[in-house]
Design brief:
This protein is mainly beta and 264 residues long. It folds into two domains: 149 residues, no CATH class; 90 residues, Thrombin, subunit H (Beta Barrel). The strands form two sheets. A six-stranded antiparallel sheet has the order 5-10-7-8-9-6. The protein has a five-stranded mixed barrel with strand order 3-11-4-12-13. The protein starts with 16 loop residues before the first strand and ends with a strand.
Length: 264
């Protein structure tokens, strides 16, 4: 087994919570940028109730005023039994080597802001934020993670892990069949792979799904039967659709309504 790097250096972008009115952060809410300016997932709060999260767009350009979501899950990072590798992870470790399914394709630090959690073993239920990641270039079954907090319970050869990317990294237009959580509405058109702010709270204009009519004061979100990706609609009453907020101005399909977002 090749040696893991002794230190993975976390990115040094600003992170955490930003309060308005600043009036604008380093990258304005109506700006996109090819270079990362802040930690992905950073929350910006204005005093009128509007909230935004800092995102990295995926490989497809975004049309404005649509809801976005985290990327589809990476199957090679789910329910991974650690075998021999897991037995080497001890209490207090901050950098760990994980065994994953071959075929995983991850750029360095692609998992920053994500989460690794234990599905089974004595450490069941433990979860850890990821601050740096690197896949071994010569063996794509070996993934090194640097964690925000030290290991609390040792892993064993039977430890089963699932590793999830940050939902704010490589975002996509919210699909007609949900694959991840809603992360916010982009207020400008966004170039593929650029960084941008997505609105997650407060009054927000968003396109209404074709065939739906939203009603003032009622919950809205991922439509019970979506006609188009990223558009808001009437949610099913059976709890199967994600609620994004409450309609402030109801409107028929293909129009633009106003929603009080409650993602944050």
């Amino acid at each position: 087994m090749p040696d893991a790097p002794s230190i993975l250096t976390p990115p040094t972008y600003g992170k955490g919570l930003l309060f308005g009115d600043v009036e604008q952060p380093k990258q304005g809410i109506f700006e996109e940028n090819v270079a990362q300016q802040l930690g992905v997932g950073t929350l910006l709060v204005f005093n009128d109730g509007r909230k935004y999260r800092y995102n990295k767009n995926g490989a497809v350009a975004l049309t404005k005023n649509l809801m976005n979501s985290g990327a589809a899950v990476i199957g090679e990072l789910e329910a991974e039994t650690q075998t021999v590798i897991g037995a080497n992870v001890a209490v207090g470790d901050i950098e760990v080597l994980c065994l994953v399914t071959t075929g995983t394709a991850l750029a360095e630090n692609a998992l920053v802001g994500g989460t690794v959690y234990v599905e089974s073993s004595t450490a069941i239920g433990d979860d850890y934020p990821i601050v740096a990641s690197r896949l071994d270039p010569s063996d794509d079954t070996q993934l090194t993670l640097r964690l925000r907090y030290p290991i609390r319970t040792a892993w064993s050869a039977t430890t089963v892990l699932t590793i999830k990317k940050s939902p704010f990294w490589d975002t996509v237009v919210f699909p007609t069949t949900a694959e991840n959580v809603a992360v916010g509405v982009n207020k400008i058109a966004v170039t593929a792979n650029y960084f941008y702010w997505g609105q997650t709270g407060g009054a927000c204009a968003i396109v209404t799904d074709n065939g739906d009519t939203t009603v003032k004061g009622e919950p809205v979100g991922a439509p019970g039967s979506a006609g188009a990706a990223g558009e808001v609609g009437v949610v099913a009453n059976d709890g199967t659709d994600q609620v994004w907020g409450t309609a402030m101005h109801g409107i028929a399909g293909d129009g633009v309504g106003l929603v009080w977002l409650t993602l944050d």
